[in-house]
């Protein structure tokens, strides 16, 4: 037994000497948790002994601390990435400036590679890190691993950013050279790690302390392999009828790739070219258009870094939002008395996801029928969505509130009753998440308050007990929203005059 122990010690000493003496390059994983089509990783792998690291940095993130659902996904995604790296991923928690400086001090690091991120706080932090390390003669190499094109590559003729989607889409996607093609995973990774310094992934404390997340486990396959399988399944099946089917929440006609894209388990370039390999169709075109919306949101965030907090249309700064904790709580819990709204909010809580059509309806209901500030919805989605993404979340909430780029007109208020009747006519989606109405005939499913007493009794539904009465009158609340908008316009007219 003593001989075995001695041999192990000698091996560790040899490895340590190699680690100390050989030129080391760091690849800093961020929102690129994959090996394939990872530009920074591929270049780093060509230039020395590779130290792959991940730094969980909450201190510098301002108000954008990861939500509970995102933390669960990140924990599992890091675990899968570590497997792909044969257990060689070195994980840290804290300020990247300090951690990277410490690694440079302790080891023979000559260069640091990363793929760029576009959140304002990350840009500021990365700029500072780059300056400090370059002053120490450490090479810094950054790449685009998250977007089809950089935000500064898509500008109007006067070099200002687009605020309307259609001309943005036409310039970049219809009349432009294609984005770069995906690159293969490195054929060989000469890896090392920091055994004495790194944390285990569990020590990051990402997994929620309650078992709320357990229901996600059978619904999602986290990681690069799962992303690749999800993309294949979508292109081989769900893409058919995407143009029409994506509006119907009961159908499997959406990609569900958004969390994989956010955490970089698959790149938009991989998705783009995998889609382009298929025969051209309206379904394909509409899917690529949705991918372009993601890019548009990132362009907005880059050029307007206050997007997560400030109205893009500043005239909304004086909009008469209301404060109502009870209404907010009932919206969050899916107890508004409007079945489609409640189904969407419960889907979010139970699955970490919400169908896009329903996202628009529940968002409209919050900001227009309840007159609650879009910040309230953005924060709840940020905490509950597995695909919570600063650019997409902020741009989408500003869009639905009417204060963002290319925003929906404020007078366009989604009616949850007619939306349910149109897009979930047989009630499959709604009854799945609002089971107390499963016996309600479809004629009254989305307006149970109109059902005769005998219908309610037969369905075993007592309004106000088994299922809540409507939180607001949909028609009156719509008029109230339009009046609030008119008040805003009148105020602006008074100021202008």
What does this structure look like?
This protein has 3 domains: 19-145, Rossmann fold (3-Layer(aba) Sandwich), CATH 3.40.50.620; 147-182 and 224-303, Serine Threonine Protein Phosphatase 5, Tetratricopeptide repeat, CATH 1.25.40.80; 314-496, DNA Cyclobutane Dipyrimidine Photolyase, subunit A, domain 3, CATH 1.10.579.10. Helix content is 48%, strand content 6%. It is built from 21 helices and 5 strands. Strands 3-2-1-4-5 form a 5-stranded parallel β-sheet, sandwiched between helices. Strand 1 (24-29), helix 2 (39-45) and strand 2 form a beta-alpha-beta unit.
Record keyword descriptors for this entry.
497 residues; alpha/beta; Rossmann fold; Serine Threonine Protein Phosphatase 5, Tetratricopeptide repeat; DNA Cyclobutane Dipyrimidine Photolyase, subunit A, domain 3; 3 domains; five-stranded parallel beta sheet; 21 helices; 48% helix; globular
């Amino acid at each position: 037994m003593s001989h075995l122990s001695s041999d192990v010690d000698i091996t560790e000493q040899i490895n340590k000497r190699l680690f100390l003496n050989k030129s080391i390059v760091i690849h800093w994983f961020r929102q690129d948790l994959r090996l394939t089509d990872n530009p920074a990783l591929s270049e780093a792998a060509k230039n020395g002994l590779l130290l792959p690291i991940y730094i969980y940095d909450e201190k510098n993130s301002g108000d954008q601390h990861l939500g509970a659902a995102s933390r669960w996904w990140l924990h599992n995604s890091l675990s899968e990435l570590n497997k792909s790296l044969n257990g060689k991923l070195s994980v840290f928690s804290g300020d990247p400036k300090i951690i990277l400086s410490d690694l440079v001090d302790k080891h023979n690091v000559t260069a640091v590679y990363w793929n760029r991120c576009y959140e304002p706080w990350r840009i500021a932090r990365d700029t500072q890190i780059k300056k400090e390390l370059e002053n120490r003669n450490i090479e810094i190499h950054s790449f685009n691993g998250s977007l089809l094109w950089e935000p500064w590559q898509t500008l109007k003729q006067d070099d200002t950013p687009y605020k309307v989607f259609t001309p943005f889409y036409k310039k970049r996607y219809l009349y432009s050279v294609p984005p770069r093609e995906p690159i293969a995973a490195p054929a060989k990774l000469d890896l090392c790690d920091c055994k004495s310094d790194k944390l285990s992934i569990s020590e990051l404390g990402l997994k929620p302390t309650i078992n709320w997340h357990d229901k996600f486990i059978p619904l999602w396959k986290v990681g690069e392999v799962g992303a690749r399988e999800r993309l294949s399944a979508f292109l081989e099946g769900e893409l058919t009828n995407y143009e029409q089917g994506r509006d119907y929440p009961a159908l499997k006609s959406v990609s569900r790739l958004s969390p994989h894209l956010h955490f970089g388990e698959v790149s938009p370039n991989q998705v783009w070219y995998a889609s382009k390999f298929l025969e051209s169709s309206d379904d394909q075109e509409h899917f690529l258009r949705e991918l372009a919306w993601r890019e548009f949101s990132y362009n907005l965030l880059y050029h307007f870094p206050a997007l997560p907090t400030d109205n893009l249309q500043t005239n909304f700064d004086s909009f008469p939002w209301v404060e109502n904790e009870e209404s907010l709580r009932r919206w969050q819990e899916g107890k508004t008395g409007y079945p489609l709204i409640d189904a969407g909010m419960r889907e979010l809580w139970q699955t970490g996801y919400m169908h896009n059509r329903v996202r628009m309806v529940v968002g409209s209901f919050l900001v227009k029928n309840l007159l609650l500030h879009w910040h309230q919805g953005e924060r709840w989605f940020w905490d509950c969505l597995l695909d919570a993404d600063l650019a997409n979340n902020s741009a989408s909430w500003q869009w639905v509130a009417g204060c963002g780029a290319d925003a929906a007109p404020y007078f366009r208020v989604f009616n949850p009753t007619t939306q349910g009747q149109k897009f979930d006519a047989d009630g499959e989606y709604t009854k799945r998440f609002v089971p107390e109405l499963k016996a309600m005939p479809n004629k009254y499913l989305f307006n149970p308050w109109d059902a005769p007493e005998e219908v309610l009794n037969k369905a075993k539904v007592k309004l106000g007990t088994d299922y809540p009465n409507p939180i607001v009158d949909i028609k009156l609340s719509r008029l109230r929203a339009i009046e609030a908008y008119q008040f805003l316009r009148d105020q602006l007219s008074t100021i202008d005059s």
